[in-house]
Amino acid sequence: MEVITDIRQMQQWADTTRARGQRIGLVPTMGYLHAGHLSLVAVARQHSDVTVASIFINPLQFGANEDLGRYPRDIERDRRLLTEAGTAFLFLPDAAAMYPEGFQTTVKVERMTRGLCGASRPTHFSGVTTVVAKLFHIVKPHVAVFGRKDFQQFVTIRRMVSDLSMDIEIIGAPIVREADGLAMSSRNAYLSGAERQAALCLSKALAAADTQVQRGEVDGLRVVAATRRVIADEPLARLDYATLADPDTLEEVSAVHGPTLLALAVYIGKTRLIDNCILDPFAKRCPLPDGRGSG
Ligand code: AMP
């Protein structure tokens, strides 16, 4: 795997690759990779001739009191994992090159970034869309793959691409979970042993809601109440939000009459974790905990 740190060099490589008629696939990440990230590389490889992963801990998407300074990193391990996964190129820019002196342009998707995670992270999604728009102009992918683990991010990027007529296919890949149901996340590294155990309440809470829906419950308040009860029963957990929403628009809904997003964010100690699933009254099986049918 070749590592490129320079923006201009990455663009020149993209131009040459496109001129050769090859399809470029991009997987943007913040590093400290796990099997969830590598599953995106596998999807990108299926849809492209050359796969580029990027690693950039984007300061613009962290709030003032968030974990930018201590976000986990291990670039040597990431390089090894990406190489083993068959990634052709790693784009590894530094913050000074991405946001030079005088930088003042942002990309903001309006309505769908106000609720869910946007309510407690008001500047987060404009940070994400701005950096992803930059990455798209630098790597010039034909296709980019995002995880449904960050469902609001995936839908927001799809909206940006559509609204700004970007000629890029956006693919949402399924959530990859640990064997016990916990959605993989770089932030799981923050958890102590007890917190790691407590963090299971997220996937259990989704499963509880799913059980209600499979039993025929359509009332949104009662479905969300089942979710809240599981979180409330875990002493180390504090609910940020649990919300039912339309999976395309992210508008809140009050009933489950068709495929419906149930998204939640929960503090486990100081660590904020997110998870989600699509509740489907017509689906025959529970989407959790193995992740095959989730997200
Ligand atoms: P991050 O490094 O956290 O910014 O994530 C980079 C990409 O990996 C995003 O598109 C995430 O949605 C995706 N991702 C993170 N965790 C998972 C997971 N457990 N399953 C699938 N995709 C994931």
Please give a structural write-up:
The longest helix is centred in the middle third of the chain and has 16 residues, at 124-139. 36% of the residues lie in helices and 19% in strands. The protein has helices at 7-19, 35-46, 75-84, 95-98, 117-120, 124-139, 151-163, 193-198, 200-214, 220-232; strands at 2-4, 24-29, 50-55, 89-91, 143-147, 169-173, 237-245, 260-268, 271-279. The model is unreliable at 291-295 (pLDDT under 50). Helix 6 packs across helix 7 and helix 9 (200-214) packs antiparallel against helix 10. It has a 6-stranded parallel β-sheet with strand order 1-4-3-2-5-6, with helices on both faces. The protein has 10 helices and 9 strands. The chain is an alpha/beta fold and 295 residues long. Adenosine monophosphate (AMP) binds at residues 29-30, 36-37, 39-40, 146-147, 149-150, 173, 175-176, 183-186.
